[in-house]
Each structure stands twice: as C-alpha cells, then as structure tokens.
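re: that chain from earlier
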Amino acid sequence: MDPLSSARVDSWIWAVRLTKTRSAAAAACRGGHVRINGESVKPAQAVRPGDEVRVRVGDLERIVVVVRIIKKRVGAPAAAECLVDNTPAPPPREEVAFVPQRDRGAGRPTKRERRDIDRLQGR
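^ sequence. v structure.
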C-alpha cells in the first residue's frame, strides 16, 4: 500500500487548512463534527482520495471531496489543489434597517431626537 494513499483525517483537515490547529481538528472529530462519506469518524480514521469529508467549523459546514493526500500543512493555494469544495453558497443576507445611534459621550438625546427614536421604534 502506498504511504501517500491515505492519511489520518485530523492531520489532513489541518493540512488543507479547514481548521487552524491539528488539535482543533482532532477535537472536531471527537465531538462528532467530522463525517467521512456520511459516517462520524475518530481522529485516526484514514481518509483516501475520492472520500467526501464534511467538517462543521462554527456555524458553517464545509463539504469537500479529497483529491490528493497531504500530511504536512501547506500554503493556501497548494491546499486548494488537494480538495474540491462542494460547500453550498450561504443564503443571502437579509437587509437590516439602519438604526441611527448616538456617539458615545454625546449626552442625552434632545426632545426632538427622542420623538424621532419613538417614531422609528413604532411607539
């Protein structure tokens, strides 16, 4: 078996820059935030070319397909060549109405400004 045909999943996730540290990658595996081909895995699970890896980092779930195995961390352009990112685009951000705010230390609002604030808040 070729030594570069598989690698530990925590090492590969760290090497392709899906997590900042290898220990964070291992913790994500132990916490059930990493799946290979739909199955939750331990940090030492082998990952091979063609596997689909799902990694939840914060609120975002990254879905990647392994193209090439690497064991050492490389630069971002080289890391991008080792995977195919199938992560869906995030939903469009909702437009939020602008709420005017006073500068800190500007004192209390005037009566006119208080009426404007009440009108904006629907009171």
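The longest strand covers residues 60-66.
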